[in-house]
Amino acid sequence: MASQADEAVPLLGTALLIARDEYPELDADLYEALVQGHVEHLRQETDRIDAWPLKMAAINRHLFEELGYAGDHDQYYDPRNSYLNEVFERRLGNPISLAVVQIEVARRLGVPLDGVSFPGHFLVRLPVDDGILVMDPFNGGRPLGADELRERVKPHLGGDVPDDNALLQILDPAPHRAILVRVLRNLYGVYAEREEWDRAARSADRVLKLVPDQPDALRDRGLAYLKIDYRRGALADLSRYLHLAPRAADAEAMRQSLIGLNLGRTHTH
């Protein structure tokens, strides 16, 4: 998978593969059939519509109003919101998992929907005649205007307001690999916060399956290994991280961790 081009990495299939780590008995074919069922229910209606935005409105109405997919506002950081099988079963998810459902259904109906790795809150985008239509899957696929998008991104830019060109760059389509990595990084964050370090290590490991030698994932896996006392793995990962990112903001802290690991190894011998 790491050697495949971004567009060749299957979005739904890989998202279900991520879920299989936590649910080893997961039947991927079942959820593939469920998505296709959503598509077939919509096909006759969307085939009668010419404009992509109107097709998308019909898709959103079916997914969010009729089927009840919704953002989990009450337990946003529940890891089930990142596992696609749970999203299909509970009809609850976080922005990125709901976006995956939207994207898969829309594309199978000929609507070229893309994900957007927007800071803080994943979005989706659709080309229209005079630009792009940006929607929020966490809130029923609600369209977002340029002013609201600027306000949303401003805290992530130190309070600066992006101009049109900067905003368009932020709204670039996200490749499949980037979407899946963001799913895994969300899971790492949830599990690290819960101090479930075996699952945190697994999540970072899966990032490295998609993007070998990704520095942040090496650091994250190394720190998780340290927490579960897998010292050899921690030593290898943190050493590699410092080799790849010697001037990182946390480089000195990682060097101190390495010194502790090496001292511990000396004492063990």
- Quickly give the CATH architecture of the largest domain: Roll
> Structural class, from secondary structure content?
alpha+beta
List unreliable stretches of 5+ residues.
Answer: none
CATH fold category name of the largest domain: C8orf32 fold
Strand order of the largest sheet: 3-4-5-6
Per the principal axes of the C-alpha atoms, what is the gross shape? globular
Helix % is 55-70%
Largest sheet: 4 strands, antiparallel
What share of residues are in beta strands? 5-15%
Number of self-contained structural domains: 2
Look at the structure and give the CATH class of the largest domain.
Alpha Beta
Query: Kindly state the mean pLDDT as a whole number?
Result: 94
Encode the helix/strand succession as letters: HHHEHEHEEEEHHHHHHH
Radius of gyration: 21 Å
Number of strands: 6
- The number of distinct helices, counting runs of at least 4 residues, comes to 12
How far apart, in Å, are the first and last alpha carbons?
39 Å
Notes on the structure:
The chain is of the alpha+beta class. Strand 4 and strand 5 (131-136) form a beta hairpin. The protein has helices spanning 11-22, 28-47, 52-66, 84-90, 95-108, 146-153, 164-170, 176-194, 197-210, 215-227, 231-244, 251-268; strands at 70-71, 92-93, 114-116, 123-128, 131-136, 142-144. The protein is globular and about 70 Å long. The model has no long low-confidence stretch (mean pLDDT 94). Strands 3-4-5-6 form a four-stranded antiparallel β-sheet. The protein has a two-stranded parallel sheet with strand order 1-2. The protein has two domains: 6-170, Roll (C8orf32 fold); 196-268, Tetratricopeptide repeat domain (Serine Threonine Protein Phosphatase 5, Tetratricopeptide repeat, Alpha Horseshoe), CATH 1.25.40. 60% of the residues lie in helices and 8% in strands. Helix 1 (11-22) packs parallel to helix 8. Residues 35-185 form the Protein SirB1 N-terminal domain. It comes from Pseudoxanthomonas spadix (strain BD-a59).
